[in-house]
Amino acid sequence: MPYIFQWPFHDHNSLSFRCASKFTVAAVSLFGKLVTEIFNTTHVHNKQQLLDAIEHRESGRPLITVINHTSVLDDPGLHGVLPTRILVRNNHLMRWSVAAQDVCYKRSIFTWFFSRGRCVPVIRGVGVYQRGIDFCIEKLNQGEWVHIFPEGYVNPDNTYRRLKWGVGRLVAECERSPLIVPMWHVGMDVVRPNKRPYYYFKAGKHVTLSIGDPIDLSSEVERLRSSNSSPMEARKTLTDIIEQRLLALKPEAEKLHQETLVRLNVKS
């Protein structure tokens, strides 16, 4: 299945693209902050771990963040918890986010907007070897940050679905083993319900975001390479480890969320 429109990043290093991208990322990120920190309240646990991973990456080490996906507003909404100095002044540090082509790239104006917002189109159902994943690996090899919803779709019920192997390929084929930060959130599907009409969000709600300990898979990647594991085996092994660490955050985040609601005496 081809991309609906021309590949949007052929000129992403040009001055015009970079200027448009800087403005778009800042505007959308500030909108996210408006939703999650002004009109609603987001309770972030272990926030410093995420900030350290973004701002203090050692000698250009790449970063991957993985998170559950319950609302179409998860990105940029949850990135609104980051300091304004990152969102606006230093937004060259901001993520490249994997996005579904059939949702974000359906029209030419969407293609312009989401590409300037650093959203990389992937085609669901065609496997891990596609241009969007290649582009993300290229960005990781440049020491940048890639954000991915490894479930591959919006899952408002948080029912278990195995993670897609694309995240395993990112780790396996990166020239330098990236740092991986897992995150789990609760409440974004209340702020932005997944039902019509799709153009509004609610106010006065509470969201919980739990940041997990960073994952270093460099030794596992080296073991897989030295044992001549097949690409498929490497992808699956690495994805399984990430899945285990990500799912371990779910009960903790849900418990923290309920404790917050009880403490504040609110229903949702």
Defining key terms:
single chain, 268 residues, alpha/beta, Glycerol-3-phosphate (1)-acyltransferase, eight-stranded mixed beta sheet, 12 helices, 8 strands, mitochondrion, Tafazzin family protein
Provide an overview of this structure:
The chain is 45% helix and 15% strand. The chain has 268 residues and is α/β, with parallel strands linked by helices. The chain has one domain (15-264): Glycerol-3-phosphate (1)-acyltransferase. Strands 1, 2, 3, 4, 5, 6, 7 and 8 form an eight-stranded mixed β-sheet that branches. The longest helix has 24 residues, at 15-38. The chain starts with 14 loop residues before the first helix and ends with a helix.
Domain module count: 1
Shape: globular
Radius of gyration in whole Å, from Cα?
18 Å
Distance N terminus to C terminus?
41 Å
**Quaternary status:** single chain
CATH topology: Glycerol-3-phosphate (1)-acyltransferase
Provide the CATH architecture: 3-Layer(aba) Sandwich
Largest sheet: 8 strands, mixed
What level of helicity do the residues show?
A: 40-55%
Q: SS-based structural class?
A: alpha/beta
CATH class, anyone? Alpha Beta
What can be said about this structure in brief?
The chain has 268 residues and is α/β, with parallel strands linked by helices.
Write the layout of secondary structure elements.
Elements: H1 15-38, E1 41-45, H2 47-55, E2 63-67, H3 74-77, H4 84-89, E3 96-100, H5 101-104, H6 108-116, E4 119-122, H7 131-141, E5 145-148, H8 166-173, E6 179-186, H9 188-191, E7 206-211, E8 215-216, H10 218-226, H11 231-247, H12 249-264
Helix pairs in contact: 7-8, 8-11
